[in-house]
Design a protein that fits this description.
Blueprint lengths: L2 H38 L3 H7 L2 H16 L10 H19 L2 H8 L9 E2 L5 E2 L9 E6 L4 E7 L8 E8 L2 E8 L1
Antiparallel strand pairs: 1-2, 3-4, 4-5, 5-6
Length: 178
């Protein structure tokens, strides 16, 4: 093998490695965009492939029960009972409500995300993006876990964080956090 051939092989290897790294770093964000697109078009098969529904439902149930227990430092007599009731009620409701079909409805503007909310100076904003575009900040916990924080720039609310887990070379939405 000549030096010219060795250099060509090394350069090709470096280019392929760089392309793979860029693809790998961009893949979780791309998966989230594919989920939004599939939901907008009502493609429930793609949503089933891109979302780990059992884990996603579990994280929503945890958010609901944590909301009941907002201030754990403060002791209230009914706190444990309230948390148990919230967990018991949240389970079946979340199981029935968080389906590929319901997510498709939300992204298409027919569910809770599509309801109009008053914006600045009387303008309205919807999930379809008629208001300011949401900012997405991606943070890596490991090579298998990525958190993508989504928040509108003009919103004072903390936003929402989507948890993406790697499954081989693909990514799946596996949870949501506040």
């Amino acid at each position: 093998m000549t030096r010219k051939q060795a250099f060509a092989i090394a350069a090709t290897g470096l280019i392929l490695a760089a392309v793979f790294v860029v693809w790998f770093l961009r893949a979780p964000h791309t998966t989230l965009m594919l989920i939004k697109e599939a939901a907008t078009h009502g493609d429930t098969a793609t949503l089933n492939r891109l979302i780990d529904f059992p884990s996603f439902r579990s994280s929503i149930k945890l958010l609901i029960t944590d909301a009941v227990d907002a201030d754990p430092q403060e002791s209230k007599p009914g706190r444990v009972l309230g948390r148990m009731i919230a967990g018991a009620l949240a389970g079946p409701i979340v199981d029935a409500a968080v389906t590929p079909e319901s997510i498709a409805l939300m992204f298409s503007g027919k569910g809770p995300l599509g309801t109009k909310a008053a914006g600045k100076q009387g303008e309205t904003q919807t999930a379809e993006g008629s208001g300011p575009k949401a900012e997405m900040v991606q943070s890596w916990d490991s090579t298998s876990t990525v958190r993508i924080r989504v928040q509108r720039p003009d919103d004072t609310a903390p936003g929402i964080t989507f948890v993406m887990l790697r499954n081989g070379l693909s990514w799946r939405l596996s949870g949501v956090e506040k």
